[in-house]
Write a structure and sequence with these properties.
Shape: elongated
Oligomer: single chain
Radius of gyration: 18 Å
Distance between the termini: 14 Å
Structural class: mainly alpha
Number of helices: 5
Order of helices and strands: HHHHH
Largest sheet: none
């Protein structure tokens, strides 16, 4: 890489001679930002509608949809914000998200009566084309790659 290329890769805030920061929301990360943004809106909208229509019908499922919206929103924010602290926070949230999808997915299969209505993470995200189980894995791969960059 030439000196000119190195200078062009640096963010405007980077001082000359310092290593350029890795932008989490650039390149393939932009696709993650898009998916997490869409899932934030979808999960938040779903939980608001469910709570308004009758929270007492399935409080566990509706609460889990709200939790999913918060997790998705935080990951979206972290990816857009960028930086090492945001990368680490997003990595922890992606791991927690994956754990949530796996636990809720298994729980909905083992004890369907506990969920009179589905959540974003029910049946491992089957209602959302399994994206809720694929997204955190993809996110963790991207965030681990970002650490090496």
């Amino acid at each position: 890489m030439s000196d000119t290329d190195r200078h062009q890769d640096q963010s405007p805030a980077a001082a000359p001679g310092t290593k350029p920061s890795f932008e989490l929301g650039k390149g393939p990360g932009r696709v993650l930002v898009w998916f997490y943004g869409v899932f934030t809106v979808a999960a938040a909208s779903r939980s608001v509608v469910e709570v308004i229509r009758g929270f007492d019908r399935a409080p566990l499922a509706y609460s889990l949809s709200a939790v999913a919206a918060v997790v998705y929103g935080f990951i979206t924010y972290s990816l857009v914000r960028g930086g090492e602290k945001a990368r680490r926070a997003a990595l922890v949230c992606c791991a927690a998200e994956l754990l949530g999808v796996l636990v809720v997915g298994a729980w909905t299969l083992a004890e369907p009566s506990a969920f009179p209505d589905s959540t974003v993470w029910s049946d491992f995200g089957m209602g959302y084309l399994f994206i809720p189980v694929i997204l955190p894995v993809t996110g963790m791969i991207w965030l681990r790659r970002a650490k090496r960059a």
